[in-house]
Amino acid sequence: MTMFRKLFSFAAAAVLVCSCGGYGLKSPDGSLDVAIFRDKVKGQVMFRLSAGERIVLDSVKLGLGTDACVWDEGLEMKAGPVSQVHEVYDMVSGKRSHIDKYANEMTLSLLNADNEELQLRFRLFDDGLAFQYILPHGAGVLTWEGTEYLIPVGVNRWMQNYEPGGYEAFYPKATDGSKVSWKQRERTDWGYPALVEPSEGLFALVTEANMRKGHCGSYLLNDNAGPHYRVMLAEDSLAVGQERWESPWRVIIAGELSDIVESTLVTDVSDPSQLDDTSWIQPGPVSWIYWANNHGSNDFRIVTEYMDLAAEMGWPYDLIDAEWDVMGNGGKVEDALAYAVSKGVKPMIWYNSSTGWINGAPTPYYRLNAPEDREKEYSWLNSQGVAGIKVDFFAGDRSGDMDYYIDLMSDAARHRLMINFHGATIPRGWQRTWPNLMTMEAVYGAEWYNNMPVLTSRAAVHNATLPYTRNVIGSMDYTPGTFSDSQHPHITTHGHELALTVLFESSLQHMPDSPQTYRSLPDEVRAVLSTLPTAWDDSILLGGYPGESAVIARRKGKSWYIAGINGLDEARTLTFSISRLYEYGNVARLFADGETDRCFEISDFDLNGTGPDISVSCRARGGFLMVIR
Asked: Reduced to 3 states, what is the DSSP secondary structure of residue 433?
């Protein structure tokens, strides 16, 4: 599937009656189709998602249960008419600034033996399927969901264990549902997003989207390490009331790897922006103190060094991290905020969510939990010239947690404060609904060099997996570009680390290294970091495979930034074509691996003499950044 086909018009769709006795729906361009049918033995409703002759996911079970009603077996099924959905919207942040997408939609009515109705809405795009459950009259208390994905043995998959307090785990490649040892126990619970390769070159990414107030998150569980992955709600019972209720969307992005990486399906099915004016929301790089100075935010002198760095580098923001409430050594937090403003740098500031406790969790506590305290704190931030906040250490994915996230975002928007969630849940489309949400962590990122030795040997393959998994669904605050060492060393090259600043999309790109490290970099590298875009007009996958390599081109205006990394422990050449790029200049600057892991080879060349295919040699765990202006 390519970007060009998506521009073609399409004819009016109709309900298709399948040979299986159910109903069918095709995507606007006809590349995907879904067949909804009943199991002949139990009468359970299922669907099959296909791409032409190839099956993406087969026999996906559906159902729902409440404290009073069950929709599982022996269901009657009736399809409503097909309608065409056209989503056109702009994004302040993310992989693409303007989205124009079509989908075909159909709603099924499912009646149980007591003639009680459950509705199922299917929305099929050219790059995937979204479906949701609807209780048209409410139902009291939701107790279980019957969605179950079948992923046969032998199918490649990349899934992380479910970590609702932060989604900080790896995505190891596997070919079955065997238990994974993580955090000292064997586990078969899996968090979103989950990537599978049903057949060679065909992929599906499973996740969820459009989390509203009153919703809880979910995860996947394969009992006995088998091939059936059930959707499990994050709480045992969920009050849905007696009025119409809609579940979050269950999302399956499907197609080639380029369709997965370039997809905006998570925001396509999320609620439109709640903000009339977004002019005050400005993505950009941020100088960040924590990585090189773990407790540095309690030291006024060190804090101001990072503000000086931001001013030197032309970065618009500096983040004061944890423990700023006990700042000393020459000044308090108010002095530091005033210093940033005097340097032309917009300060941001960290908060503990005060919901997800760990031993020794840093302060400040309880500043944002109660509405009246949050209003007081946000007003104080406005008075100090603070541009945004980072909120950390969340508890999980229960409905109360989701309500808290939404309250934080909506109240911050009223005060024109940008927001970054850390130690938090995954993106589920909120960046469209609340554009002041700039990024979220939910990743085993570079800060772990500061905590444990695990990342040193696993970073390269992990980094080459994230573009196809976590970063697909929303901005990811990995904090890339660590050129020196923290408590535990990195063995990726300088070229790899520079590439990550573009390869990993995050609308606030936190620059983690020390001021002296950035000052020691070559002038050409400092220049590209000083002018680095962090929100993009377009993003295109040019090549790669999960865990092995990734080459992504991102456009800002008429400039293209192409980042590539080698995830393997051996040198290799990354070859890609720029034929899919458009409106690009003739001169490119390449920042490639040098003679050692910790130096660059920088060169300029004329694209007119290269042709569309370009090859770049990478060291083991290496990488490159190419800028075309």
From this structure: helix
User: Residues 440, 427: contact at Cβ < 8 Å?
Assistant: yes
Could you tell me whether strands 317-320 and 284-288 are parallel, antiparallel, or unpaired per DSSP bridges? Answer: parallel
Report the alpha-carbon distance of residue 328 to residue 122 in Å, rounded: 57
The string of DSSP letters for 462-483 reads HHTTGGGTGGGGS-B-------
What secondary structure does DSSP assign to 261-322, as a single string? HH--HHHHTSPPPS-S--TT---EEEEE-TTTSTTGGGBHHHHHHHHHHHHHHT-SEEEE-T
Q: What pTM did the predictor assign? A: 0.96
**Rounded CA gap, 443 and 17, in Å?**
43
Residue 7's contacts (CB-CB under 8 Å, 6 or more residues apart) are none
Contact in structure between 552 and 540 (CB atoms under 8 Å): yes
Cis peptide before 193 (omega within 30 of 0): yes
pLDDT in tens, 59-95: 999 999 999 999 999 999 999 999 999 999 999 999 9
User: 452 falls in which pLDDT band (50, 70, 90)?
Assistant: very high
Separation of alpha carbons 208 and 247, rounded Å: 10
Q: Which candidate, 456, 471, 455, places its Cα nearest to that of 597? A: 456
Which DSSP letter does residue 32 get? -
